[in-house]
Amino acid sequence: MQITFYPLLGNQNSKNKQGGIIMGINFFRRDTRDIEFLLFEHLGMDKILSYAAYSDFSEDDFRMIINEALKVCKEVLGPAMQDGDQEGCVYEDGNVKVPESFHEC
C-alpha cells in the first residue's frame, strides 16, 4: 500500500488514486546530535563498552541503531502522529477508533 504525504488541506480520511492511505504532512524534525552527545560525551559510552558484557558493541553500532530508529520516526511514526493530532481517536461503544494511518505503523 502506498502512502502519500500532502499538506493539511482537505479530507484527512481519503485514499489516493492507487488506493494508498493519504497521511498528513510530516513535521517530525530531529537529528542525532543530542542523543549522541548524551551517550558518547556526557555518559561516556566508551567506558561502558570496555566491559566484557558489551565488548561486542561499538559506538558505530549505537549510531546505526539511533539512525534507524530516527528513520522509522521520520517516515512512519511522524506522519501517523500528525494524522492523530488532526483526526483524533474516538471512543464509541466500548471500542477506540484510531486514524487509519495508525494501522500502518
Plain-language structure description:
There is one protein chain. By secondary structure, this protein is α+β, with helices and mostly antiparallel strands. It has one domain (4-104). Helices cover 42% and strands 11% of the residues. The protein contains three helices and four strands. The strands form two sheets. The chain has a two-stranded parallel ribbon. Strands 3-4 form a two-stranded antiparallel ribbon. Strand 3 and strand 4 (95-97) form a beta hairpin. It is elongated.
Structural class of the helix and strand makeup? alpha+beta
Q: What is the string of helix and strand elements?
A: EEHHHEE
- How is the main sheet built? 2 strands, parallel
Can you count the helices? 3
Strand order of the largest sheet: 1-2
How much is the radius of gyration in Å?
A: 19 Å
Tell me how many strands there are: 4
C-alpha geometry: elongated
**Global mean pLDDT:** 76
Query: Oligomer, anyone?
Result: single chain
> How big a fraction of the residues is strand?
5-15%
Give the terminus-to-terminus CA distance: 12 Å
